[in-house]
Amino acid sequence: xxxxxxxxxxxxxxxxxxxxxxxxxxxxxxxxxxxxxxxxxxxxxxxxxxxxxxxxxxxxxxxxxxxxxxxxxxxxxxxxxxxxxxxxxxxxxxxxxxxxxxxxxxxxxxxxxxxxxxxxxxxxxxxxxxxxxxxxxxxxxxxxxxxxxxxxxxxxxxxxxxxxxxxxxxx
Amino acid sequence: xxxxxxxxxxxxxxxxxxxxxxxxxxxxxxxxxxxxxxxxxxxxxxxxxxxxxxxxxxxxxxxxxxxxxxxxxxxxxxxxxxxxxxxxxxxxxxxxxxxxxxxxxxxxxxxxxxxxxxxxxxxxxxxxxxxxxxxxxxxxxxxxxxxxxxxxxxxxxxxxxxxxxxxxxxxxxxxxxxxxxxxxxxxxxxxxxxxxxxxxxxxxxxxxxxxxxxxxxxxxxxxxxxxxxxxxxxxxxxxxxxxxxxxxxxxxxxxxxxxxxxx
Lengths: 171, 263
Hints:
The complex is a heterodimer of chains A (171) and B (263). Chain A has 171 residues and is α+β, with helices and mostly antiparallel strands. Chain A has four helices and eight strands, in the order αααβββαβββββ. In chain A, a hairpin with a 2-residue loop joins strand 6 (146-151) and strand 7. Chain B has 263 residues and is of the alpha/beta class. In chain B, strands 1, 2, 3, 4, 5, 6, 7, 8, 9 and 10 form a ten-stranded mixed beta sheet that branches. The longest helix of chain B is centred in the middle third of the chain and has 26 residues, at 107-132. Classes of the chains: A alpha+beta (171), B alpha/beta (263). Chains A and B meet through helix 1, strand 1, strand 5 and strand 6 of A and helix 1 of B.
């Protein structure tokens, strides 16, 4: 092989290395930006809110964020949804006897219901547990302001208006 | 004409260089996500949940009849039967879903319901069912009152019931677990042999799904999940492997994901 071929291979190797270096810097930068998007970084949250779907759970609901941890402690967030003007969180995996249905009532506060800012800035979470039943809560369906939930193997209806559970029976 | 011979050592270096350029270029253009997990090919069709009393053929390419607990709970088993048959007759790809819960029905009762549902649909629309009835979807979760071995038994029963049917009718498992609940091994054993339809609602379920033995997943997304898992594109971009493949009477291959919705 001549010197020409050898030079071409060296140039190709160098070009590849430069491209990888540039790409790595870009990835490092993107990674830093993503990591900055935590509940503790208001600037990043404002940026994230630009792509936030209205009335869906914003960055505040991200498991492990400061806002989410303040609401659910070490429980796992199973569902997060706005029903009417009430935010609903359900959780699983908590200590035995944990209340696993959280409701935060925004009332007429449109900013609270928008979901961009942590709604705990406007109202407090209330936690509900059906009497005599333990276990995590999962939303199975939503029927108006009634949630059909599973709590510990029991399918229950939860009335958001009055915060009461009732047993589901075949319709 | 001059024929140039390149030594094996130089060929190797050239191949490395070309590969490095290609990878560097891909990473530079598409970002790190291009080298991360993502469903491939990208799903282009989705199933959407509706309760049995709703008949909606326009909002999505496919439908899931959401029967929830049935048995002693909502919704009635007969309503699931009727809704399934209606979609099949309308040539709409459809899954019939139950969320087995121990207080709604016993394991034996769920098996009986599944058997009855198959007889009901097959006796009334066998020809269309083989093309449009995706089958039975089971939403199984650790807190629903059945042990891992119980749901494995239910799944094996349902597989046995559906695998002998003509066409694509089968069973999917729309399952979820979390830290301290069903383990990776238990999850793997539960979904084995079914169409896995994992509810990917947090990083833990991403890990469970990506570490499972299933190379194909009907990924279930849910706008009522916490951020950022309420975004279908985010979730589908984090799950490896291929999406569920089902033609459902079309000439082209369609790749699916599954969307739970509040109905």
